[in-house]
Design a protein that fits this description.
Blueprint lengths: L5 E3 L6 E9 L1 H5 L8 E13 L2 E15 L6 E16 L16 E5 L5 E3 L1 H11 L13 H13 L8 H10 L1
Parallel strand pairs: 5-6
Antiparallel strand pairs: 1-7, 2-3, 3-4, 4-5
Length: 175
């Protein structure tokens, strides 16, 4: 399994090429993220070179395994991303006056002498963005041995009064 998302651009003529990679546990381990336990993500890139710039349509499909925040058992999270990328040669503009095409288009700047385009970091970042902040199984999907403790704890927890309940009393008293 080739998990190196490099595309040779040296000597690439105008036109389109396509590449495919399968990203798994080894790919995610390269970035040192302990949250992603495993994964099976298919990455497809269509690269089009014309007039000194390169357009890349990167497509990510699959799933990654993370731990459920509630029961700490494995949870499959789907990944479905389409990332338009424009590669330009030279230095990135500094300041607010950059000519960003669109907020939805990722811009990558490479030195003129660059021989390859590495899409690994971009693919990894977008997979991480596909993972929700709150990672829990759907209702009833948590590990039963842990779920019973969660349910018991929630039932026995005292119901705290809202800190704004006192304000309601003040409004009622004014009437």
């Amino acid at each position: 399994m080739d998990e190196n998302l490099l595309i040779e651009i040296n000597g690439l003529s105008d036109g389109s090429i396509s590449r495919h990679w399968s990203l798994g546990k080894e790919f995610f381990a390269l970035f040192g993220n302990g949250d992603i336990r495993d994964g099976k993500v298919e990455a497809d890139a269509k690269l089009t070179r014309s007039s000194g710039k390169i357009s890349v349509d990167l497509r990510l499909r699959g799933s990654v395994t993370v731990l459920c925040d509630r029961c700490l058992s494995p949870l499959q999270v789907p990944v479905k991303e389409e990332i338009p990328i424009v590669v330009k040669f030279g230095e990135a503009p500094s300041g607010e006056g950059s000519d960003n095409l669109d907020d939805d288009v990722e811009e990558v700047f490479l030195p003129e002498e660059a021989g390859a385009l590495d899409l690994g970091q971009i693919a990894y970042d977008y997979v991480c963005l596909a993972i929700p902040l709150r990672r829990v199984h759907p209702k009833g999907g948590c590990d039963e041995s842990v779920a019973m403790y969660i349910a018991d704890e929630a039932a026995s927890a005292p119901v705290s009064e809202s800190p704004f309940a006192g304000l309601k009393d003040l409004l009622d008293a004014k009437k």
